């Protein structure tokens, strides 16, 4: 008997028929002899609809009240799913994040999980029942206030509960058949990846791949939780995310199982995939005095503004002026407050001007094998050159190369690089069942 944590996203429970379909799948897993815990997101676009409703009331809703409002979406889906499972003859009980023992810090809107105390969940599965947990939410024990975890929070909830219960696997059900070598909405010939390491998945998620939330992968790596990405719309084998290639979920399972293949490759492929991100903007601080401490002061201001920095480039200073330009990328939503913070210290830093550009796109090439294979950068840049795409910024790590291009060139760039590295599938086009890729 295995202990399985399953997570279903909003597109998987978008309406009553979808909820019934998911319930059938859960009941099958339970009848197969597994202990099953389910984490569920709000139905369809419920969270966005609630945000829009709040915006009609006030442009700046109090964060505490907004959290209480947004948690209603998951409460609806968890209770409906519990009803649907019970209707199939399998006992199920639903729990809010607070009832499930998800403890967070006190930050509303983007709280972080600090502990999981799943005593009520354990009691439920010990009674032979399916536990249904509302994702995306928890509670701060100091204030006793409900909190939300931010976008992708249900993924993080599922992995955290799997870690807290010592589950055998955390299955993330979405509307695509696994992790692909690129977004199948942009590259229909993208190939499904059978197995990927935590490190590669972290880079993919951080670079814009939306199939798994970044924080959930971080949590899975920290607690060595095997994650199996699958589609709730098919019975395809999906993608296994673990510590190493050839790391099985169950060493006693039969060979050939995609999650337990004893003959899995011991060496990582050169390239795992191509990710892209349209959500970033670029700020350039023009004419910064090229003296010690100026870069430090700029990024102290940026940090105090609460912005998360991604790529940074500093130009060589001009000898006759002693000035340099510093460019960095950040989430587009952090742009206005960061620009305001930098303008407030122009007299102190003595830079000439600021430039804000929200028409950029980031492309990232990821693969654990690239660190031992020369020529990857050359092939990447040649593919972009041949496609007539200009590069504005470059950033690298051991297993990633990222470039910034114009936003309107990003799709062409992804397709060009994907083909250049031989990632196109020969088995037909990938399927995005619900149209979102998440």
Automatic annotation (TrEMBL):
Its EC number is 2.7.2.4. Catalyzes the phosphorylation of the beta-carboxyl group of aspartic acid with ATP to yield 4-phospho-L-aspartate, which is involved in the branched biosynthetic pathway leading to the biosynthesis of amino acids lysine, threonine, isoleucine and methionine. Belongs to the aspartokinase family. InterPro entries: AceGlu_kinase-like_sf, ACT-like_dom_sf, ACT_Aspartokinase, ACT_dom, AKii-LysC-BS, Asp/Glu/Uridylate_kinase, Asp_kin_monofn, Asp_kinase. Residues 283-359, 365-438 form the ACT domain. One of its GO terms (molecular function) is ATP binding. The keyword Kinase applies. The lineage of its organism: Bacteria, Bacillati, Actinomycetota, Actinomycetes, Micrococcales. ATP binds at residues 7-10, 174-175, 185, 210-211. PANTHER family: ASPARTATE KINASE, ASPARTOKINASE. Keywords: Amino-acid biosynthesis, ATP-binding, Diaminopimelate biosynthesis, Kinase, Lysine biosynthesis, Nucleotide-binding, Transferase. It catalyses: L-aspartate + ATP = 4-phospho-L-aspartate + ADP. One of its GO terms (cellular component) is cytosol. The keyword Ribosomal protein does not apply. Pathway: Amino-acid biosynthesis; L-threonine biosynthesis; L-threonine from L-aspartate: step 1/5; Amino-acid biosynthesis; L-methionine biosynthesis via de novo pathway; L-homoserine from L-aspartate: step 1/3; Amino-acid biosynthesis; L-lysine biosynthesis via DAP pathway; (S)-tetrahydrodipicolinate from L-aspartate: step 1/4. It is an enzyme of class 2 (transferase). PROSITE patterns: ACT (PS51671), ASPARTOKINASE (PS00324). This is Aspartokinase. Substrate binds at residues 47, 74. One of its GO terms (biological process) is diaminopimelate biosynthetic process.
